């Protein structure tokens, strides 16, 4: 049978049954193959150039000189499983998130021709985004958020037709949003918020038929809101807060965005009327505050509404009766407008019965002059009426208690877990940070937790409490865990808009 030719087989091997021989044979074969396969030499050089332009104080990349990147497991480098037509293994992912790296991104990144994931998020990178990245035709994820990158967005990124997600938020990018991005024909997420991107939003972006989330808040955009964006069939989140579209209105066509869940246009210098959004079936979140909007509040919004913030505009007319029929509403902010008529007390009477549900209604500084119904909201409803005529003429304690003008702490969405278990204090092993599993079916079961921080970039709720359980079920079912294996330790709002940490 020729077994003797394999150095890894001893003489005893001759007595093995056939199936075991096959196993031994294929094992030897595999070892030989792995040693024979190496990374593409041009990619090795590109990686060394990438390392050279980085500053790596914690020495995370110290193994980027030993042997071959694909065979020797360089930190953050993942390769194809088998050789390509050129006989080499290729780098498919570069994942160097949160490693205190500074320095800049080398143009040689463009030579990693089969790269699918490029992830440098949460470092201290400076310099600009190399245009050469636009030649990575297989790239699916380009994740550069949370650095100090400057310069403008290269037009060449528009060539990335396989790109699913572009995250460049929280950098110092300036210059325009390139028209060429209209060619990113697979993109679902454009996260470009918190930079200094300026100029007009290109109307051409309506071609992005796969786009889900457009986050451009906290930039320096100007011009008008393109009505064409209403043609985006999958669009779920439009977030443009803190830009200056001086004189632009909100296009009426946005009422045709049938998948829209969140529209946030706070402080955008917008004029004109609020469009009819009544046929957006799953709108959860509407923030049009701090603009110059006028006219009346649209008479109907989706039953899914969690948050309505139309404060600090010039809206007149009365509060729509349909707002008394929003079963999941958590926040209604209409303060600092010109609203008149009565305060509808049935807004909170129609809520769904969730134990942890809460509702904040802020109607301060309007022209509301009467109450319809009995003014006795339950404890989980916060009502503010200060600065309305109804407070000036108020003579009963029923009304004056809601007339303070102070800002209450209604944004409190914080929690820390308090264990209710009657387990012996510190009876878990202290090495490896063991602790009790709060929801374990076995009482006082110790385990060493894997701690994960989860940052929601664009939540639609104002209070998280009612969503703790659905969120736990979502995470555990997605990860194939039992619900007791996940415990939400704490959650809080992070400084700045639209963020919650869990
Ligand atoms: C590869 O590196 C990781 C950490 O960077 C380490 O956990 C793993 O054991 C290494 N694998 C091999 C085969 O060296
Ligand atoms: C980053 O640097 C900080 C202090 O400068 C240090 O505490 C932290 O552990 C570093 N993180 C990593 C991943 O190297
Ligand atoms: C952002 O870039 C501008 C120049 O474009 C520079 O003046 C500023 O210091 C940078 N800010 C940060 C935080 O790096
Ligand atoms: C999109 O790509 C095509 C070629 O594929 C090019 O002709 C066109 O100018 C690009 N569009 C934009 C808006 O850059
Ligand atoms: C914002 O854009 C204007 C031009 O539209 C420019 O003059 C200004 O310097 C930019 N501001 C920032 C902070 O980038
Ligand atoms: C409103 O947006 C402008 C930019 O248009 C910004 O300078 C200003 O700080 C924003 N105001 C608030 C309260 O965020
Ligand atoms: C908007 O533009 C008008 C003139 O068209 C100007 O008077 C006003 O100051 C601008 N407002 C803002 C917030 O830029
Ligand atoms: C909404 O779309 C329909 C057809 O899809 C169109 O007839 C209508 O004009 C659109 N409405 C607006 C306001 O664009
Ligand atoms: C909710 O309120 C509306 C109008 O106030 C009323 O017609 C309806 O019956 C209420 N629904 C429930 C479930 O209480
Ligand atoms: C207040 O809590 C009760 C039950 O605790 C619930 O039925 C009701 O829907 C809640 N109200 C609001 C406005 O969330
Ligand atoms: C005042 O409150 C009491 C209960 O606290 C309620 O019975 C009464 O109807 C209220 N009066 C008005 C005018 O809302
Ligand atoms: C984004 O920019 C705004 C306005 O400058 C700021 O309030 C907010 O904290 C920033 N967000 C992040 C995540 O840096």
List descriptors.
single chain; 502 residues; mainly beta; 14-stranded mixed beta sheet; 10% helix; globular; disordered N terminus; binds 2-acetamido-2-deoxy-beta-D-glucopyranose; signal
Question: In terms of topology, how is this protein built?
Answer:
Layout: H1 18-36, H2 41-52, E1 54-55, E2 77-79, E3 91-95, E4 102-103, E5 117-119, E6 141-143, E7 165-167, E8 189-191, E9 198-199, E10 213-215, E11 220-221, E12 237-239, E13 262-264, E14 271-272, E15 285-287, E16 292-296, E17 307-309, E18 314-316, E19 331-333, E20 340-344, E21 359-362, E22 367-372, E23 381-384, H3 389-392, H4 397-400, E24 415-416, E25 435-436, E26 446-447, E27 455-456, H5 468-478, E28 490-493, E29 500-501
Parallel strand pairs: 3-5, 5-6, 6-7, 7-8, 8-10, 9-11, 10-12, 12-13, 13-15, 14-16, 15-17, 16-18, 17-19, 19-21, 20-22, 21-23
Antiparallel strand pairs: 1-4, 2-3, 24-28, 25-26, 27-29, 28-29
The structure holds 2-acetamido-2-deoxy-beta-D-glucopyranose (12 copies).
Residues 158, 179-180, 182-183, 204 line the site of one 2-acetamido-2-deoxy-beta-D-glucopyranose.
What does this structure look like?
The chain is mostly beta strands. Among the domains are: 318-408; 428-501, no CATH class. 10% of the residues lie in helices and 18% in strands. The protein has 5 helices and 29 strands. The chain has helices at 18-36, 41-52, 389-392, 397-400, 468-478; strands at 54-55, 77-79, 91-95, 102-103, 117-119, 141-143, 165-167, 189-191, 198-199, 213-215, 220-221, 237-239, 262-264, 271-272, 285-287, 292-296, 307-309, 314-316, 331-333, 340-344, 359-362, 367-372, 381-384, 415-416, 435-436, 446-447, 455-456, 490-493, 500-501. The strands form 7 sheets. It has a 14-stranded mixed sheet with strand order 2-3-5-6-7-8-10-12-13-15-17-19-21-23, with no helix packed on it. A 4-stranded antiparallel sheet has the order 24-28-29-27, with no helix packed on it. β28 and β29 form a beta hairpin. The longest helix is centred in the first third of the chain and has 19 residues, at 18-36. The termini are far apart. This is Probable LRR receptor-like serine/threonine-protein kinase At1g06840 isoform X1. InterPro entries: Leu-rich_rpt, Leu-rich_rpt_typical-subtyp, LRR_dom_sf, LRR_N_plant-typ, LRR_R13L4/SHOC2-like, PRK1-6/SRF4-like. Keywords: Leucine-rich repeat, Membrane, Receptor, Repeat, Signal, Transmembrane, Transmembrane helix. Residues 41-80 form the Leucine-rich repeat-containing N-terminal plant-type domain. Residues 94-288 form the Disease resistance R13L4/SHOC-2-like LRR domain.
């Amino acid at each position: 049978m020729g077994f003797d030719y394999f150095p890894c087989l001893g003489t005893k091997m001759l007595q093995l049954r056939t199936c075991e021989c096959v196993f031994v044979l294929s094992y030897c074969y595999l070892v030989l193959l792995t040693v024979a396969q190496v990374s593409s030499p041009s990619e090795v050089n590109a990686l060394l150039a990438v390392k050279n332009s980085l500053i790596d104080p914690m020495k995370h990349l110290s193994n980027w000189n030993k042997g071959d990147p694909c065979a020797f497991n360089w930190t953050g480098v993942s390769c194809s499983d088998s050789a390509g037509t050129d006989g080499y293994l290729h780098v498919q992912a570069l994942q160097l998130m949160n490693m205190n790296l500074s320095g800049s991104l080398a143009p040689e990144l463009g030579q990693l021709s089969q790269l699918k994931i490029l992830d440098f998020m949460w470092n201290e990178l400076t310099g600009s985004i190399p245009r050469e990245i636009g030649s990575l035709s297989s790239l699916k994820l380009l994740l550069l958020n949370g650095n100090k990158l400057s310069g403008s967005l290269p037009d060449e990124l528009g060539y990335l037709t396989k790109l699913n997600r572009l995250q460049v938020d929280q950098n110092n990018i300036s210059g325009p949003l390139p028209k060429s991005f209209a060619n990113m024909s697979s993109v679902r997420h454009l996260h470009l918020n918190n930079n200094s991107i300026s100029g007009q939003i290109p109307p051409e972006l309506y071609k992005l038929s796969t786009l889900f989330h457009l986050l451009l808040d906290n930039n320096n955009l100007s011009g008008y809101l393109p009505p064409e964006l209403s043609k985006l069939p999958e669009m779920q989140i439009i977030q443009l807060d803190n830009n200056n579209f001086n004189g632009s209105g909100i296009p009426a066509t946005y009422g045709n965005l049938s998948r829209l869940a969140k529209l946030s246009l706070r402080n955008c210098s917008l004029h004109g009327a609020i469009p009819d959004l009544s046929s957006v079936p799953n709108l959860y979140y509407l923030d049009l505050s701090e603009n110059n909007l006028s006219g009346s509040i649209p008479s109907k919004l989706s039953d899914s509404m969690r948050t309505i913030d139309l404060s600090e505009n010039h809206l007149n007319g009365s509060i729509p009766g349909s707002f008394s029929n929003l079963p999941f509403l958590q926040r209604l902010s209409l303060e600092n407008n010109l609203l008149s008529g009565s305060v509808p007390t049935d807004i909170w009477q129609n809520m769904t019965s969730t134990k942890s549900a809460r509702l904040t209604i802020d109607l301060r500084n309007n022209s509301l002059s009467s109450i319809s119904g009995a003014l006795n909201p339950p404890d989980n409803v916060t009502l503010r009426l200060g600065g309305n005529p109804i407070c000036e003429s108020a003579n009963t304690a029923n009304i004056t208690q809601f007339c303070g003008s102070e800002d209450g702490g209604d944004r409190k969405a914080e929690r820390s877990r308090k264990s209710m278990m009657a387990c012996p204090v510190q009876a878990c092993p202290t090495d490896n940070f063991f602790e009790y599993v709060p929801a374990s079916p076995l009482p006082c079961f110790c385990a060493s937790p894997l701690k994960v921080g989860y940052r929601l970039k664009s939540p639609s709720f104002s209070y998280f409490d009612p969503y703790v359980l659905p969120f736990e079920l979502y995470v555990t079912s997605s990860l194939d865990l039992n619900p007791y294996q996940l415990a939400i330790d704490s959650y809080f709002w992070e400084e700045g808009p639209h963020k919650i940490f869990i």
